[in-house]
Specification:
- It is built from five helices and 28 strands.
- It is mainly β.
- The strands form four sheets. A six-stranded mixed β-barrel has the order 2-3-10-4-9-8. It has a four-stranded antiparallel beta sheet with strand order 16-15-21-22, covered by helices on one side.
- A hairpin with a 4-residue loop joins strand 23 and strand 24.
- The termini are far apart.
- About 7% of the residues have low confidence.
- The structure holds 2-acetamido-2-deoxy-beta-D-glucopyranose (NAG) (6 copies).
- One 2-acetamido-2-deoxy-beta-D-glucopyranose (NAG) binds next to loops.
- Keywords: Aspartyl protease, Glycoprotein, Hydrolase, Protease, Signal.
- Belongs to the peptidase A1 family.
- It comes from Rhynchospora pubera.
- GO terms for molecular function: aspartic-type endopeptidase activity.
């Protein structure tokens, strides 16, 4: 690590204020927040929203699985830590408030990482954000963590200066966000139905780089101890994503509010599959995908395609921050082949969307074309997708495309495939549950 960076990081501990009052403990919490898609309400045409989303996702798929490719014997401590997903590659913003009195802001949610962080004054380096930077001096409930705190130990790469815990989440070649690990009181929920939770560990970032895409930080919803879901009890959350182009926000539910028994918007059977853990990337939500059916054909996908390998490569995750899905190359090619065989039109690729499985649309007169269905077979659960959840129409090229791309490492079930589905991440019981639902009526 460069001397200059170490110097900047050590400065953080001098500029970070010391405040102390009494601590309270976290109660079991249940609340509802709402998610806004980053391109919602900004007047972009649908084609543009899709091509931007696919571009962001293809960058994300390259970085999400990156730890598994980094040698653990690397002498560079920065390079050997997990590379943070670029914040601008997330897809949904949530509203929350920080401090006492509460300062409202929006943050990108990320099921691919754990840390909750926002930019803080004084800034050594900050990027533009729509709300003022958080000022710890103006809050009565800010407490810095010492290096021995269990949350400090839970960081991928904790740094310690004068017994103050400094976090750093980095890209492969420099700091993305660095600052002091602290406790604060957070307020969650929709305006008057809010809940206030004291002592949430978060990163108070004094040194930040990269675009925040109209947010002012991130909320990690990964599996690790620092994630919001693990800092609240009971450890479960759910979302129900409205139609991709809908201006209606999507509910995000935590704790006791995240319950598939409690909702009357479910329109089909509830299915569950166990999470599996990848010790190389412990924050990601791995599931066991066994097969895929396209139309009438159960594809002859080799078991190796979705296997989570001993070195941490491969496997299949479910993610909220990737838009379309990505399938391991062998599986992708079989899906492509099945569409070629079952759709009576010539297949073309679409550079505008960056997708390969596309057909000229509408079909010529008197040619009836049936788009085959797609079912993901998980261990104990089948996810059959409605056409709206995997077909994307590009008005500018007149092409109708399957929203699935190829991956050279693991596979990702993206958020486009999860539209109008109640998706419950139950960490307490190690289960992912899902059911078709009318998310816009929740
Ligand atoms: C929380 O709700 C109360 C009313 O119950 C409201 O006065 C307050 O402004 C809300 N706080 C935030 C941060 O939304
Ligand atoms: C932060 O909050 C946790 C959880 O309530 C608590 O155990 C810890 O002592 C707090 N640390 C500080 C520095 O306030
Ligand atoms: C931020 O929001 C403004 C107003 O909604 C919008 O014009 C702008 O494009 C957004 N910027 C980004 C990077 O999303
Ligand atoms: C739903 O209810 C059933 C039976 O009452 C119970 O076994 C199950 O754990 C509940 N599921 C959730 C997610 O609360
Ligand atoms: C495929 O389309 C062609 C016309 O383009 C038609 O002659 C043929 O019968 C169709 N085949 C099937 C199986 O639908
Ligand atoms: C999933 O689909 C397969 C193939 O159609 C079927 O054999 C299996 O019983 C289904 N599993 C569940 C849990 O519905």
């Amino acid at each position: 690590m460069s001397t200059r960076l170490l110097f900047l990081l050590s400065i953080i501990t001098f500029i970070s204020p010391t405040i102390s009052t009494t601590c309270t403990s976290n109660a079991n919490t249940g609340f509802r927040a709402s998610l806004r898609h980053i391109n919602a309400n900004c007047g972009l045409p649908k084609d543009e929203i899709i091509s931007r989303a696919v571009q962001r996702s293809s960058k994300r798929v390259k970085t999400l699985f990156s730890t598994s490719k980094i040698s653990t014997t690397s002498t560079n401590p920065v390079a050997s830590t997990r590379i943070l997903v670029q914040p601008n590659e997330g897809e949904y913003l949530m509203d929350l408030a920080i401090g006492t009195p509460p300062r409202p802001y929006s943050a990108m949610i990320d099921t691919g990482s754990d840390l909750i962080w926002t930019q803080c004054t004084p800034c050594v380096l900050c990027v533009d954000q729509p709300t003022p930077y958080f000022d710890p001096l103006a809050s009565k409930t800010f407490f810095r963590h010492t290096c021995s705190s269990s949350f400090c130990q839970a960081l991928d790469y904790p740094l310690c200066f004068s017994n103050i815990c400094v976090y750093m989440y980095s890209y492969s070649d420099g700091a993305n966000t660095a600052g002091v690990l602290a406790n604060e009181t957070f307020t969650f929920g929709i305006s008057s139905n809010n809940v206030t939770v004291p002592n949430i560990a978060f990163g108070c970032g004094n040194l930040n780089e990269g675009s925040l895409f109209n947010g002012s930080g991130m909320v990690g919803l990964g599996r690790g101890p620092l994630s919001l879901v693990n800092q609240l009890g009971p450890s479960k959350f759910a979302y129900c994503l409205t139609y991709f182009f809908s201006p209606i926000s999507s509910p995000l539910l935590f704790g006791s509010m995240a319950n598939l028994n409690n909702t009357n918007v479910i329109t089909g059977p509830v299915q569950s599959t166990p999470f599996i853990i990848n010790t190389a990337l412990p924050s990601l939500y791995y599931v066991s995908l066994i097969g895929i059916t396209v139309g009438t054909a159960l594809l002859p996908i080799p078991a190796s395609a979705f296997a989570l390998n001993l070195d941490g490569t491969g496997g299949v995750i479910i993610d909220s921050g990737t838009s379309i899905s990505y399938l391991q190359m062998d599986a992708y090619n079989l899906v492509k082949q099945a569409f070629q065989t079952q759709v009576n039109l010539s297949m073309v690729s679409n550079d505008n969307f960056g997708l390969d499985i596309c057909f000229p649309w509408p079909p010529p007169p008197f040619v009836t074309v049936k788009i085959p269905s797609i079912t993901f077979h998980f261990d104990g659960a089948n996810m059959t997708l409605p056409e709206l959840n995997y077909m994307l129409y590009d008005g500018s090229t007149g092409l109708y495309c399957v929203g699935i791309g190829p991956s050279t490492d693991g596979s990702i079930i993206g958020n486009f495939q999860q539209q109008d589905m109640y998706v419950l991440y139950d960490l307490e019981n190690g289960l992912l549950s899902f059911a078709p639902a009318r998310c816009d009526q929740m």
